[in-house]
Every structure is written in structure tokens, then in C-alpha cells.
Write a structure and sequence with these properties.
The chain has 11 helices and 36 strands. By secondary structure, the chain is α/β, with parallel strands linked by helices. Among the domains are: 151 residues, Immunoglobulin-like (Sandwich); 141 residues, Jelly Rolls. A hairpin with a 4-residue loop joins strand 24 and strand 25. The chain is globular.
Length: 677
């Protein structure tokens, strides 16, 4: 679980109040001294990692099922609840009568579909239909002039020839948006598929249901009942278009998958078993998730890799390393070796050519070409292992992977809040990177934005695999975006230490019951989606990133006193000074541009005198991309998705030395055109 919070979720509202009070006080305060910023262009700068900004994902907040994974029907294989067919109900029209029940005695042969839905349509007859219906993930989203693909397995107890009708209807059954004939079905299990097309004049709605009906009396069984809308790049078993587009628009360099807690499972047996996520959906049994709902495993290993491919991002593959969330651990030695072998097989599936066993399997699954892979993470948050076995487990994985794939960079994770904790957990081998996780309130995030400025050099590079300022729900508000941007300036200033970073959690279904973790990046319901202010800040930093991070010096930066919260049964810690202006600068030699990023957490505009030391020529006009709002608690929502979005304007009066006024409560990227030296 994400329990490495310096501020717990229960303290987040108090932290938010403190942060808002601080920024309100700053809005009234003046700063006597002129803030001065000097950027040194005479030196070549620090190389910025080509993989600095990426994405992290796991099955939380209905991120896959009910989110990015485009399947519209919930509990399609009837395993979400062993006692009742949740999200399915019976339709009995005009006196038709029928009952529903789960039936483990009618599995689909040669598949993982072990529990079927039984419909006893005893009262069905012409004009009196009996049907099964699914309510989806908080509704079935329908759009005009759109084709939906439905499929299902079915059989009947009789001799056969039973016709079925498949439809998309209003929740009251009075409006039929699309309809097709399915079947007829007989006494053998068979897979059926139909297309359903909505009318051009349909007003978009999620107040709809999916229905399979019969007017013939008898007993019918169903399994793997599925409904897909159009998907991104028209991939079968693909992803939701609007969410994919938002992710692509971030220009991520990598995707860390499959998680997170989702990788570990609550027990070793409920971990992410990648081999069981391959091939046809009927062969995937699914498994219990770690956030109180079941995963269909429709989003399997190949789908993760194709997700990367569609974003032009590279995979960061996390492999199960012998530790589960409830404390079950497999120590180093013979008992761990099958899991090491499983990781080697997984890497072969990703990278092997068709002459290898698992490369050939990937080709049979529909993707003959290998995928690029540079990074493999060993486990997730293994610092929570109370038996302290990670050093031995990491060593066993490290030696086996490096022996077969010496080119891969290996990431150690110990769940601590800094790499000191990781280094204490991993002493027998030196990892290429260590994974640090940070979840802070906004003020603490701002206070810690300079963490890497004085960081010890010479050790493994840093992968900030999970991080976020946690103000606002279900998605972050402006104060979190300011704190997140402040943190990212620290990443860029210290590009020699920080090689990769990804925010978490990425996605949240905003419907009641859809959120398990507050303060997320992108929100959605069945029909629409939006980016939080932090999402837009992430886009700005990713889009405007040079190849070198430039040295800079800031003078007379205003600060505010912050009182960190006291831990239980401990005295209050001493007050701390929190900066309210944050800076980073990167240069793109290829584009001849300098990107100056400035975060102003003050409630009033702040004028900064900027000197570009060593600049030969600077164009007098450039661009200013600004994210701001009037109040730090302002945010975006489903109903107001664009309240806070970046605005691009022309920046004038630029040069080797210039003064610029940064708006209150703002994140700004100044794009300066540089001449040749």
C-alpha cells in the first residue's frame, strides 16, 4: 500500500487548510528586495535524461477496468462476486418471467471461463421478452453515429435454434438506441458477435444499459459478455480514446507498469501473473486486485506494451520479486528461483526475437517485433518487508538478469522516502537506479523542492517512481499544481541525479465508489474526462524540456515560515522556511531555445530581474505559457474541465537582461530564442 506518506491521508485536509492560509497570507505581504535570477549559458550545462518525464500506472481508482481499458460491461465473466451476479439483472417485459443465477457447473470447455450466468426464461414468449442486462461502470456511454462491438459465449439446454436480440437501451427500456440479432444459439458453447450502431442524432448519454433478450422459453447460459466502443488506433481489446489522447498529449518518455501494489498482490498467489494475461480473453482467469475490486486482466502484458507503443514511450517493466502486501515473503534461495526464472521469461517475451520461446509466444499473440526495453524494476516498495529480505532477493534477481541481459538498467526499490533507505536495504549489489516515493502536502512538497540541490553525488541515479502533492479530491487543485511544479524544477536543476520521474496515481473514476486514493492526475466518468491543474503543469514541463540543465543562482527569494506537523507523542519540530518562488532553466541547442520555468506561489505578481550570463543574442520576443487562477483552491472538474488551463501569449522585452512579472499563483514557462554564439 502507499503508506510511505510523510503526511497521512487523514491529515491532508488540515495540511490543505495550512497551505491555503499560508498562501492567503502571502497575498497580503510585500517583498522589499528585488528577486534576481542569473542563468549561466557560458557553461555547457548538465545533460538531461531523455527519459526524465514518464507515467506510472496501476489498477487503482478503476484505472483499467472502468477506466482506460475500453470494455464497457462490468463483471463480464461473472467472477466479481462468488455469490451473486453483481451488475447483472433480469428484464421481464409484458408479463415475461425469468430468474438469474451464477452456475459454476457449466464452464466453457478449454477456457478459463469457469462460472457462467444462467437465465431461466420460464415465462418468455412472443411479445414477452426475458433478458439479461448490465449497467456498466456507472452507466453505458453512448455517442451518436458510433459502432459498438458486442460478443458473448452462449448455449441453451434445448435442441437449439433459440434467437436472441442484443440491444443498447435507455435505463427504463423504453428507448432503444441500437439493436441487432444474435444467435440463434444451440446446445453447444459458441462465441457470437454483433455490431450495434447508434443514430446520428443521438444526444450523448450514459443513462443506458446493455441487453440480451429472448422470447423463447427455456434455460440459457452466458459467459464473457463484452461490449467495446471504438478504441484508440482501433486496437481490438484496446483503450479508451479520450483518455489515451490525454496521455499521448503529455509526451511521456516511458510507462512504468504494471504497478505498484498491483504488481505485488495482497498475497503471492494474487500477484500480477503475467503469463495468465496473455492470449485470447477467454484464457485469462482474472485475479483479485489490491484495492477491493477484481481485475479482469483484459489489460495484460501485451496490452501494456502496446499502450507504450501507441504513446511512443518506452516500457519500464516491474517484475515481481517475492514480497506481497500482506507481508508474505519468499526469501532468497531455491524457493525464490522460480520467480527469478519467471522474470527472465517476461523479459524474453518483451525483447526476444521469434526464435526464442517467449518471443515466439509474443508473435503468436500478434506482435512479432520485439519491444525496446532499457529499464527493469525489481519489486515495489520492498522496504515494507519487515523480514528485511530485500537485499538477498534483489541480489538473486540482479545477478540472473545481468548475466543474461547485461545492457539492462536495474532499479532497486525499498519504499523508503529517500535513497538512504534503499541503500540500507540493498548492500550486496549496486543498482543502476533507486526508486524513491514521495507523497506530501503542498507545503511540504514546496519545502522539499530543493531536496536534490545538496544531494550526495556519485551513487546510483534516482528514479522518482511515485510522487504527488496531495491537495484536492478526486483530482488535484491549483495549490498542488504549484507544489508539483516546484518539485519538478528541483528535478530539472538536478538532472545529474534524477534520471526518471512519474507522478501517481495517474487516473481516477470520479463516480461514487470509483476513488480509492485522493488527489489524482486525470479524472473521468463514463462519458467524459478532464485533466487536473497538475496534469497541465506536467504537460508544460514535458513539452518544454531542453537537453541541458543550466546552472542558475537566485537571490532575494521570498520565503514564508512553515510549522511542520508534530508526529504522535513527539514534540513539534522547529519551524521551517518555505520558498515561494522556484526556478529551473534548460536549453535546447537543436531548437536554439531556452526554457525558463518559474513557479510563483505568492498571491501577488512577482517581478524578477533575469540575467542570461554568456548569452550572445536573445530575441526580444518569445512565448509565455502560463497556468494560473485567482485562488489556490481552484480546480478542474467534470463539469468545469477547462477552468485552469495553460494560456500562451507573446512575451516582449526579452534580452540578455530583462525583467518579467510573474502572475500570482502561477506556473510559467518562458520560451526564449537564442542566437548562435
Amino acid at each position: 500500500m502507499k503508506t510511505s506518506l510523510p503526511l497521512s491521508p487523514r491529515r491532508a485536509p488540515a495540511a490543505s487548510r495550512r497551505a491555503l492560509a499560508l498562501l492567503a497570507a502571502l497575498a497580503c505581504g510585500g517583498v522589499a528586495a528585488q528577486t534576481e535570477l542569473t542563468i549561466d549559458l557560458a557553461k555547457p550545462g548538465i545533460p538531461v535524461s531523455t527519459a526524465l518525464y514518464g507515467l506510472m500506472t496501476e489498477e487503482i481508482n478503476y484505472s483499467y477496468d472502468g477506466g482506460l481499458y475500453a470494455e464497457l460491461l462490468r463483471n463480464r465473466s461473472f467472477k466479481d462476486d462468488p455469490s451473486e451476479p453483481v451488475h447483472w439483472s433480469v428484464v421481464q417485459d409484458a408479463g415475461g418471467a425469468g430468474t438469474l443465477a451464477l452456475d459454476p457447473g457449466q464452464p466453457v470447455p478449454r477456457t478459463a471461463l469457469t462460472t457462467s450466468l444462467r437465465l431461466d426464461a420460464t415465462g418468455a414468449r412472443t411479445g414477452h421478452r426475458v433478458a439479461i442486462t448490465n449497467d456498466g461502470y456507472w452507466g453505458i456511454p453512448l455517442k451518436p453515429d458510433t459502432t459498438y462491438r458486442a460478443s458473448f459465449y452462449a448455449r441453451t439446454a434445448g435442441a437449439g435454434g433459440v434467437p436472441l436480440t442484443v440491444s443498447l437501451e435507455g435505463n427504463d427500456g423504453k428507448t432503444v438506441y441500437a439493436k441487432a440479432q444474435g444467435g440463434p444459439i444451440d446446445g453447444q458453447w459458441r462465441r457470437y458477435s454483433v455490431t450495434l450502431h447508434t443514430a446520428a442524432g443521438l444526444a450523448p448519454t450514459a443513462a443506458a444499459r446493455f441487453v440480451i433478450a429472448t422470447e423463447s422459453p427455456g434455460t440459457l447460459w452466458f459467459n464473457l459478455v463484452s461490449l467495446f466502443p471504438p478504441t484508440y488506433h482501433d486496437r481490438p481489446n484496446g483503450n479508451r480514446v479520450d483518455l489515451m489522447q490525454k496521455l499521448v498529449d503529455m509526451k511521456p518518455r516511458f510507462l512504468r507498469f504494471p504497478g505498484g501494489n498491483y504488481l505485488e498482490g495482497e498475497t503471492v498467489d494474487t500477484r500480477f501473473k503475467w503469463k495468465q494475461t496473455l492470449g485470447p480473453l477467454a484464457q485469462r482467469p482474472g485475479h483479485p486486485g489490491t484495492w477491493n475490486y477484481r481485475s479482469s486482466d483484459g489489460m495484460g502484458l501485451l496490452e501494456f506494451l502496446e499502450w507504450c507503443e501507441d504513446m511512443h514511450a518506452e516500457p519500464v517493466l516491474a517484475v515481481f520479486a517475492g514480497y506481497a502486501l500482506k507481508g508474505e515473503t519468499i526469501p532468497a534461495g531455491p524457493g525464490l528461483q522460480p520467480f527469478v526464472d519467471e522474470a527472465l521469461d517476461e523479459i524474453e517475451y518483451v525483447t526476444g526475437d521469434v526464435s526464442t520461446k517467449w518471443g515466439a509466444q509474443r508473435a503468436r499473440d500478434g506482435h512479432p517485433a520485439p519491444f525496446k526495453l532499457r529499464y527493469v524494476e525489481i519489486g515495489n516498495e520492498d522496504g515494507f518487508d519487515r523480514q528485511k529480505t530485500y537485499d538477498g532477493r534483489y541480489t538473486q534477481f540482479h545477478d540472473a538478469i545481468k548475466a543474461k541481459y547485461p545492457q539492462l538498467k536495474l532499479i532497486a526499490t525499498a519504499g523508503g522516502k529517500d535513497s538512504v533507505g534503499v541503500r540500507q536495504a540493498v548492500t550486496s549489489r549496486t543498482p543502476d537506479l533507486v526508486d524513491e516515493h514521495y507523497y506530501y502536502g503542498a507545503l511540504q512538497m514546496m519545502h522539499d523542492a530543493g531536496r536534490y540541490d545538496s544531494y550526495a553525488r556519485g551513487g546510483p541515479k534516482i528514479f522518482i517512481g511515485e510522487w504527488a502533492a496531495r491537495e484536492g479530491a478526486p483530482t488535484t487543485n491549483l495549490i498542488s499544481a504549484l507544489a508539483d511544479a516546484a518539485w519538478m524544477t528541483g528535478m530539472e536543476r538536478n538532472a545529474d541525479v534524477v534520471e526518471m520521474a512519474c507522478y501517481a496515481p495517474l487516473l481516477v473514476n470520479v463516480n461514487p465508489g470509483g476513488m480509492q486514493w485522493k488527489s489524482d492526475l486525470i479524472g473521468y466518468d463514463a462519458q467524459t474526462s478532464y485533466g487536473s491543474p497538475s496534469y497541465h503543469a506536467q504537460k508544460m514541463f514535458s513539452h518544454y524540456l531542453g537537453e541541458q540543465s543550466l546552472a542558475l543562482t537566485a537571490r532575494n527569494v521570498p520565503t514564508q515560515t512553515w510549522q511542520p506537523p508534530a508526529k504522535k507523542d513527539q514534540a513539534a519540530p522547529p519551524p521551517q522556511q518555505v520558498p515561494t518562488l522556484f526556478f529551473s532553466a534548460t536549453r535546447s541547442s537543436a531548437r536554439g531555445e531556452l526554457y525558463l520555468k518559474v513557479v510563483n506561489a505568492l498571491g501577488n505578481a512577482k517581478s524578477v530581474q533575469v540575467a542570461l550570463a554568456g548569452a550572445a543574442q536573445v530575441a526580444p520576443e518569445g512565448q509565455a505559457i502560463t497556468l494560473r487562477s485567482d485562488r489556490p483552491e481552484d480546480t478542474n472538474t467534470i463539469t468545469a474541465p477547462d477552468k485552469i488551463v495553460p494560456v500562451t501569449t507573446t512575451a516582449r522585452g526579452l534580452g540578455p537582461s530583462f525583467r518579467y512579472s510573474f502572475a500570482p499563483y502561477s506556473v510559467t514557462v518562458l520560451v526564449l530564442k537564442l542566437g548562435r554564439r
